[in-house]
Specification:
The chain has a domain of 128 residues: Methane Monooxygenase Hydroxylase, Chain G, domain 1. The protein is 86% helix and 0% strand. The chain is built from 5 helices and no strands. It starts with 8 loop residues before the first helix and ends with a helix. This is t-SNARE coiled-coil homology domain-containing protein. Its main location: membrane.
Length: 250
Amino acid sequence: MTCPVIADKVDFQRHLNGCERLINDLSKSIQAIEKFAQKLLINRTASEQETYFDELNNITSQLEHLYSSMSTLDQSSYAVNSRKRLDVIKCNLEKTRIKFEQIQQYARIAFGYHYEPNQFESISSEQQEQLMKLIEKSPYDEQMELNLINQRTITVSTLEDDLTDLRETFIDIGNIIHQQGTTINAIEQSLTVADEMVYSAKEEIKTTVNNKKRSNRIKWILLAIVIITCLLLIIIIYFSLKLASPFRAK
């Protein structure tokens, strides 16, 4: 039966890689909770004990999620080509569960931790037998598989970091384009203002030139009037003197 949650092969691989990362993170959480328990034995307070219990409950939820995800992957039609990886993940998941159950029992005895029996999805006898064989492998084989898982986890993490860097690069490019657009708008506005200033200056110069021409024209007209007036006065004086000469002779 193909589970409708798995859309295609790429989605299957993504879920599979996610389970590997979660198991790796879960192993680190279990190591951290063991150190927390040792610290709690030395100096136990109510708040720290409550935090310790919350962490245990959180790990329980993570295990339940992983078992559910593994069941989904196992039912997918794409599981055939990834059977070996699935078996390795199941093996690590079983070892993690067994170790965590021991931690739960210790927490119940040492700190009075109350918990319900873990209701993880059941595994068939045949699968349980295969997993136990995997668990009982030599330390060298186990280390090889752990190295392989760690290598794949590192590869996936590197790919995620690269995608994050690529996303940040696109964001930076978008910001630069936005900033350049703002700069271009400012330049356009400055050019528009400059054009308006140039046009105003041209108009003022034209007005000044027209005023100067008008002033010069008025000056010449006034000068001509003065000259004509002077000529008229001279003519009048001349004829007046000429007419007055006979009377003087008598």
